[in-house]
Amino acid sequence: MTDRLPRQIDRRVRRVLDEIADPWELVKKRDHYFVRFADGGWVCVANNSSKTNDWLVNKTIEELRKRG
Hints:
Layout: H1 11-19, E1 24-29, E2 32-37, E3 42-46, H2 54-67
Antiparallel strand pairs: 1-2, 2-3
Helix pairs in contact: 1-2
């Protein structure tokens, strides 16, 4: 399912999305990408920041693992 994700989403986040068993879909709102889960939860997986730091990626991964 991650083969069609935009390149703005970090490689480490893509790997976690591959591991998630719950159904999800990618939603683009303005300059952000969100993952929307079937139960209604949302997690931001990419934004318009030119610099993606490790803290932001790790926080996203942590939130995705809580959901999935």
